[in-house]
Design a protein that fits this description.
heterodimer; A: about 290 residues; 2 domains; about 80% helix; B: about 325 residues; mainly alpha; two-stranded antiparallel ribbon; flat
Amino acid sequence: MATLGNSAVSSPAAQALYARRRRGNVVLLTLSFAATIFGLAWLVLILAALLYQGFAGLSLEVFTETTPPPGAAGGLLNAIMGSLVMTIIGVVVGTPIGIMAGTYMAEYGRHNKLTTVVRFINDILLAAPSIVIGLFVYEVVVAPMGHFSAIAGSIALAILVIPVVVRTTEDMLSLVPNTMREATAALGLPRSVMIQKVAYRAAMSGIVTGVLLAIARVSGETAPLLFTALNNQFWSTDLNAPMSSLPVTIFQFALSPYPDWQKLAWSGALLITFTVLALNIVARTFLSPRTSK
Amino acid sequence: MADAVMTGLQTAGIDNAKLRRLARLRVGDSTFRGLTLAAALTVLLLLGGVIISLIYGSIPAFSTFGLEFLTTQRWNPVTEKFGALAPIYGTVVTSIIALLIAVPVGIGIAIFLTELCPPWLKRPIGVAIELLAGIPSIIYGIWGLFVFAPFFQTTIQPALIALFGPVPVLSDFFAGPPYGIGILTAGIILAIMVLPFITSITRDVFDTVPPVLKEATYGLGCTTAEVVTKVVLPYSRVGVIGGIMLGLGRALGETMAVTFVIGNAHKISASIMAPGTTISASIANEFTEAVGDLYTSSLIALGLILFVITFFVLAAARLLLMRMNVKAGN
């Protein structure tokens, strides 16, 4: 037996096979390492370009003056304001609906058919093209009203907020231990009180994470605003009129032939990216002590 | 019955005020339950509303052009003749290019993260990949237009033309002047955008492979490459395909990044370096400028086609991932 084993290992054929397998291993591992470098390189390249181009145009005027006509000086004040207003309204409208729906799925109908269907549909909404949501809001809100408006833009953003919040709320409530629910029930408290006073508190950090991620998502959304809130060259706080927003302004300015506008577009891009990345990082640190070890 | 209980409770020493509070709690309880149910149904209503409104909006286009809408590529707002073939073609081709690049790279990163990466580096790389997913698509667009496209035009495209020019069939794919923008550029930008989605899902399903299976294979004397190709990948195949489909769903519907770099030309060219258009880019570019019901309706019909395609792709992805979850025992 021993001699057979020895000869099998040391025979030239076995040596060649071993060398080939080793080579195959080195090739695959090198490729996977190269893939990682390749993937991370884009993040570095994009952030470097943003910092370089964005800071070149960043000044106090960006925050204090409204969008200029071509060739004149100006800033992004109305766009920043518009983005803030519509994002806030969208989140304020979308979050309660999302939390309530997630509550139903995790607390009342955890194992029923409706929850399975809602979860499936919600996952599709989560990844559905946002431009289609824009078309939907155009059909349902803009067309009947007869004009573009900040309200329509906020509704479109709210529709994008809902699936994100539903998903995280359901996931986080599912993590709340059942013993806590049972202990509350043993005190004789109704289920709604248990959910509001116990389950929500236990899942709070997770739900907040979901809302932050939702804010991060909608604050960079452009497509659903293009034909709902449109754009506005001027300062406007009228919710019933078209309203400017950072992403749409970037879209318009970047594709224009005017260097001033392109410069402002880069500054706006820098602002949005760092807001979104900061929200993402804050959301992750909120979550990390509990679930992601 | 309720009265009997009440009197029973009253004799047990519970006064009316407490009973009223109990009744209020009970009403609050069912109200809360009703509200949560209504919110859950709202999610279903949203999807139903999207589908119905898109169908309703696209009726004029489909009743004018019929099924020819799907098979012709003319797109003439002046004579009001519209066909969706060019945008559909552009959407499909850019997504295929994106997947051809993003799938091997994504799986490679997932292999690195699960098999090679030292533990202290896992989290930073994972976060970096997820930050890539968090960057808004308009940023990819502006970066693609001002940074990537010029570089592509002066460096990569001439090289590709020189490389494939003498090859009989491939020369058609890589023909034409290097514009910088076009189908290929859009495909590459899309690849960068879907890469994080494919990577994070592939990594997650790789993590569901039971360690004992891997350890047993290592115990037989297998190399890491053999463990990955012969155990990890076969075991997690369904989940990986689900992740790829999810990435495909993103790529098909992505709007802003593509709009910047595709060139917006309503024609089908043999060359993938030529400008083209996708469904979402056409809608984004033309919707607010569309005059006339037929033009608007044709664009909404494009939206309907996009939604139907992505719906089926995403539904397939979810079903595959659900199967994977059942296998993992969740």
